[in-house]
Amino acid sequence: MSETTSRIIKIATKKRYKNKYHWTDYFSYFYLFLGVLLMFGPVVWLGLSSLKTLAGIQEYPPTILPLSQIQVDVEGYDKPLPIFNVTQEDGSVKQLAQIKRIGINAKMVDPLNPGETVKVPIDKREKIREFKIQWQNYVDPLRKYDFLLYFKNSTFITVVATIITLIINSMAAYALSIYEFRGKNFALVFVIGTLLIPLTIILVPVFYVVANFGMINSLWGVILPGAATPTGVFLLRQYMLTLPRELIEAARMDHASEWAIYWRVVLPLSIPAIAVLAIFSIMWRWNDFLWPLIVLSKSEVYTLQIGLNAFHGELTSQWNYVLSMTMVTLLPIAIIFAYLQKFITTGIASTGMK
Amino acid sequence: MENIRNQTKIFFLRILNIPFAFLMQAIDLIMWPIQKIIGVRNMPYIFLLPNLIFFGLFVIIPLGANFFFSLSSGDELLFAERELPTTKQYDQLFDCESYLNPNTCTEDFFWRGVYNTIFFVVFQVGLMIFFSVLTAVILNKKIIGRGFFRSVFFFPVLLSPVVVGLIWQWILLKNGAFNAIIESYGGDKVSFLTDPSWAMASVIFVSIWAHMGFYTLIVLAGLQAIPPNLYEAAEMDGTSRERIFFRITLPLLMPNLLVVFILASIKGVQTFDEIYVLTGGGPGTSTSLIVQYIFTTGFASSGSVQNFGLAAAASMVLGVVLLFLTLMQLYFSRNKESKHQEI
Question: What is the model's pTM?
C-alpha cells in the first residue's frame, strides 16, 4: 500500500525534463552576460569617454565616468595646475597644486601661498575630481575642422545614391519579373554574373573608367559605380514575382502606359521590399570606405568616414576629438537601427545579404 | 488618438510623394511616345537599359580592362600610352626562388600578403563560425530578454569599418582600457597592435567582433527552420541535450553552415578596411593582406610610383580565388535547395 502511494507521489512530483535546470542553461546566461560586456561595452565606453577632457582620456588606469581632475590657476605659472588632496605628516589633509612630478616625489605648491614649494611623496596625494562633461569635444571639431562639410558630403552621397539605386534597380526588377521577352534569361545570367565580381578585384579599371568621366575627386565618382546592385535587383524581383498579374492586366485595359503601371501599380505594392533595399543602401553608403578612399583625395570632398580616418592620421594625440567624431559618425546608423532593428534583422535573415 | 496620428502620417507621406509623382509623370511624357513607337513588347528593354548601362560601365568593361592592365606595362593610366602585350607583371609577381619563403620573391610584399591572408581567413572564419553557432544556439533557447540579446550581438555589424577600427585601436592602446583590465587582474601590459606577434591575433579578434552578428543571424534562421517535432520526439525519448545537439541540430544545420563558411571566406579574403584603420597593415607587413597590397601598389600615393599593371595582375589572382569560392557557393546552395524540395 505505502509502496504504491510513494510511487504515485514520485510520479506526480517528478519534474518534467523541460523544467530541470541543465548546465547549458547556466552557461547560456554566463555567455550572454559576457557577450553584452564585450559587444556593447566598447561603444558605451566610447560614448562616455568622448565626454572627457583630453587629460581624462589619457589617464591610466582610466576612470569610467567623465570625472576630470580640478585644475586651478596659480600665480606665477602659465598653465592651470591640477590639485590634489595631500595628507600631511601630522595626518591633516591639505589641498595642493602639483607643478611637476619627479620620480616618486611631486613638486607641489599651495595655491593660497604661491611663493613656497614643497616636495611630497606621490603616494601621499590623491586627485580631486569633479563630474564634468566636456561638450567642447563635440563643438570644436565641427567649428575648427571641416566635419560639418564631411557630414554634408556623406549625407548627399547616401541620399542621392539610395534614390538612384532604388529607381534603376526597381526598373530592372520590374522588367525581369512582369514581362516575357527575348533575351530575358541572358539578362538574368548577366545580372547574376555581376554578383561574382566584387569591387576589390576591379579597383584599377573602375578607377580608370571614373577618371575618364572626370569624376575623380567628385562625389559622383563615389555614387555612380555602385548604383546598380545585383543583390538589389534580385531582392526586388523576388518580391515583384509574387504580385497578382490581374492588376497589371486591368491597368493595361484602362490604357495605362507601361511606365504608369510601373510607378502607379507595381512600385506602391513593392514598398516592403523597397524599404529593405533602401535601408541596406543607406547602410552601405554611409559606411563605405575603400572606394571613397581611392576616388576622393581632396579634403573638401571627403566623406565622414574618410575625414575621420584622415583626421586621426594627422592628429594621433587628439583622442578627445577623434572619439567625439567617431560618436557622430556612428550615431545616425545607431538611431536607424534602434527604430528599425526588427525590420533589419528579418531583412538580413531572409535575404542573406549585408 | 491613434487614428489622428495615422492620418497625419499619411498626410506627410502624401506631401513627400508630390515631387516623386511629378518626376514620374514627367518621365511618362517621354516614355509614352517611346512606347507608341516601339510597342509594348519592347518596353522591358527600356526598363532594363539604365541598369545594364551601369553594369556595363562599372563591371563588364572594367573586367575586360583589368586583363588589359595586367598584360600591359607602364606608369600611365591611359590605354594608348601603355606597352602591349607583356607578361611582365605576372613574371614579376611570380618571380620567386621558393614560394614558401616570401623573402626570396621580387614582390615579397605580395607573397607576405598571400600568406597573411591565408592565416587570417583560416582563423577568422573558423573561430567566427564556432562563435556564431554557439551564440545562435543560445539565442534560439527560451531565454529571458531574447530580443535584447539578439540586437546586442548584431549591433556591431552596422558600425562602419572606420568606427570599428578607431574604437578598438583606442581600447587596445598600450595605456588603453584592455590593458587596464589585464593589469587589474595582475597581468602584464601587452602592445596588442604594435607587437608583430600580437597584431595578427588582435586584428582577427576585432574582425570577428565586427562581423559575427551577421553570421549569427543566418545560423539562427537555419536553426529556426529545423522542424520542432524532431526535438519533441527526441525529448519524449529522453535523449540528453548533448546528444540532441550532435545528432539533430548539427547535422540539419550542416548545409546552412557550408554556405555560411563559403560566404565568410569570400568576405574574409577581401578584408581591408578595418585592418587599414586599425594597424595600416603593420607593424611592418605583419597584418597586410592581399587587398592591402593591391591598394598600396595601385593607389597609395606616397613612396614609389603607382603601378596599375601590377595591382591589376594581383587583382586577377584574387579574382581566381574568389571565382572558385563563389562557384562552390552556387553549387552548395543549389544542392541545399534541391534537398529542401525532396523533403
Answer: 0.84
Q: Do A202 and B134 count as a contact with CB atoms less than 8 A apart?
A: no
Judge contact between A295 and A216, C-beta under 8 A: yes
| CATH T-level topology, domain A71-127 | SH3 type barrels. (2.30.30)
Round to whole Å and give the CA distance between B280 and B270. 15
B188 phi/psi in degrees, rounded to 5? -100, 150
Contact B273 A290 (CB under 8 A): yes
Residue that has been written with the C-alpha cell 597584431 in this structure: B199
Name the residue type at position A42. P
Contact at 8 Å (CB) between A120 and A108? Answer: yes
Strand A129-131 with A125-127, pairing: unpaired
Average pLDDT for B191-196: 86
CB burial of A56-94 (b: ≥16 within 10 Å; e: otherwise) equals: bbebeebeeebebbebeebeeeeeebbbbebbeeeeeee
Q: How far apart are CA A305 and CA A234, in angstroms?
A: 29
Q: Judge contact between A234 and A172, C-beta under 8 A.
A: no
3-class secondary-structure state, position A160: helix
- ipTM of the prediction greater than 0.90, yes or no: no
pLDDT at B65 over 90: no
Q: How many domains does chain B have?
A: 2
Distances (CA, A) of B34 to A45, A176, A257, A261: 59, 19, 10, 15
Residues in Cβ contact with A265 at an 8 Å cutoff, skipping those fewer than 6 apart: A247, A248, A251, A256
Residue B341 has pLDDT above 50, yes or no: no
Q: Which chain A residue's Cα is nearest to B49?
A: A172
Q: What are the sequence ranges of the domains in chain A?
A: 71-127, 145-314
| Range with lowest mean pLDDT among A232-236, A261-265, B214-218, B307-311 | B307-311
Residues in contact with A119: Cβ distance below 8 Å, sequence separation at least 6, in sequence order: A105, A106, A107, A108
pLDDT digits over A43-64, tens only? 988 888 888 877 777 777 777 7
Q: Pseudo-torsion of CA B36, B37, B40, B44, nearest 10°?
A: -120
Select from A32, A171, A309 the Cβ nearest to the Cβ of B50: A171
Residue in B41, B48, B158 nearest the CB of A187: B48
Q: Tens digit of pLDDT for each residue in B123-156?
A: 999 999 999 999 999 998 888 888 888 888 888 8
Residues of chain B above pLDDT 90, percent: 20
Which CATH number belongs to the domain containing residue B335 in this structure?
A: 1.10.3720.10
| The Cα angle at residue A313 between residues B272 and B174, in degrees rounded to 5 | 85
Is the same domain home to B231 and B319?
A: yes
Of the CATH numbers 3.90.1150.10, 3.30.559.10, 1.10.3720.10, 2.30.30.100, which one belongs to the domain with range A145-314?
1.10.3720.10
* Predicted local distance difference test score (pLDDT) of residue A352: 63
Q: Provide the 8-state DSSP code for A317.
A: T
CA distances from B135 to B129, B131, B195, B243, B318 (A): 10, 6, 31, 18, 32
Strands (E), chain A: 67-69, 71-72, 81-87, 93-102, 105-110, 113-121, 125-127, 129-131
Chain B residue with the nearest C-alpha to that of A59: B175
Q: Which of A330, A344, A354 sits opposite B159 (nearest CB)?
A: A330
**DSSP result, A258-293:** HHHIIIIIIHHHTHHHHHHHHHHHHHHHHH--HHHH
